[in-house]
């Protein structure tokens, strides 16, 4: 009797928690059990003082092909699936967990990132993708709108005209196109993806965590503030908190003394 592998894996090394979607035979398509496990692992990494950075990726040839539609088979059902309830129960918690943790979350996108898989990747703070990666907005092809936070991510990254067209036309954006348009941070050759993503995570792990948390909070405030005055108040508060932390004094002192800083 064979035992199915865990659908999501987590490994912690050198302050980096690598969370891997692990259904490579299905291009890591999302099931209910899988998304619940991703949420629990993100929460565990967020609460672990030894973790400074999270790195989300997919096993095999793809990052995530989106919702596993075998769980949405309408045959034999009297009522349609309540997708609103499913979004609120399963997807909203993981998106909120990624965006609300003060720790940086990096998406290493290999291969396809479709539908909810694209939304999951774009919810991360920094997205680095191999050049063969594709961000596919496939909702319209199955008669849907948009979910998993994808609408906001596309609007912020592409602007309204491009975001609407991408969704209405069920467009596919290559990694290079996504980087050029500002949807993701960077596209790199496939052979360099692992090394570049690991170097990025290592660089973040070596950066003062309070600074990264403040920057993440400031960018969240910039995206949601009703106006400049409101944002400036929040920005000043965050900078005040950062400035009172010992890391700031050490950063300034190391600069003046021309040495490598020794952050807490």
Automatic annotation (TrEMBL):
<dbReference type="InterPro" id="IPR018376">
    <property type="entry name" value="Enoyl-CoA_hyd/isom_CS"/>
</dbReference>
<dbReference type="InterPro" id="IPR029045">
    <property type="entry name" value="ClpP/crotonase-like_dom_sf"/>
</dbReference>
<dbReference type="InterPro" id="IPR001753">
    <property type="entry name" value="Enoyl-CoA_hydra/iso"/>
</dbReference>
<dbReference type="InterPro" id="IPR014748">
    <property type="entry name" value="Enoyl-CoA_hydra_C"/>
</dbReference>
<protein>
    <submittedName>
        <fullName>2-(1,2-epoxy-1,2-dihydrophenyl)acetyl-CoA isomerase</fullName>
    </submittedName>
</protein>
<dbReference type="Pfam" id="PF00378">
    <property type="entry name" value="ECH_1"/>
</dbReference>
<comment type="similarity">
    <text>Belongs to the enoyl-CoA hydratase/isomerase family.</text>
</comment>
<keyword id="KW-0413">Isomerase</keyword>
<dbReference type="GO" id="GO:0016853">
    <property type="term" value="F:isomerase activity"/>
</dbReference>
């Amino acid at each position: 009797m064979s035992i199915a592998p865990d659908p999501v894996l987590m490994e912690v090394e050198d302050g980096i928690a690598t969370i891997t979607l692990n259904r490579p035979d299905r291009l890591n398509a999302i099931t209910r059990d899988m998304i619940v496990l991703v949420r629990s692992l993100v929460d565990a990494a967020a609460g672990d003082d030894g973790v400074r950075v999270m790195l989300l990726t997919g096993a095999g040839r793809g990052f995530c092909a989106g919702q596993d539609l075998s769980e949405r088979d309408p045959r034999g059902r009297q009522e349609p699936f309540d997708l609103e309830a499913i979004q609120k129960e399963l997807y909203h918690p993981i998106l909120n967990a990624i965006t609300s943790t003060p720790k940086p979350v990096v998406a290493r996108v290999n291969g396809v990132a479709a539908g909810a898989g694209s939304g999951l990747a774009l919810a991360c703070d920094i997205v680095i993708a191999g050049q063969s990666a594709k961000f596919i907005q496939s909702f319209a092809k199955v008669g849907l709108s948009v979910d998993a936070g994808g609408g906001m991510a596309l609007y912020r990254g592409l602007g309204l005209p491009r975001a609407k067209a991408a969704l209405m036309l069920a467009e596919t954006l290559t990694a290079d196109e996504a980087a050029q348009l500002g949807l993701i941070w960077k596209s790199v050759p496939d052979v360099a993806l692992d090394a570049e993503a690991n170097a990025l995570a290592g660089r973040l792990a070596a950066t003062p965590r309070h600074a990264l948390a403040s920057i993440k909070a400031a960018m969240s405030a910039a995206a949601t503030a009703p106006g400049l005055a409101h944002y400036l108040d929040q920005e000043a508060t965050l900078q005040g908190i950062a400035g009172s932390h010992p890391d700031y004094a050490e950063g300034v002192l190391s600069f003046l003394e021309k040495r490598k800083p020794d952050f807490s």
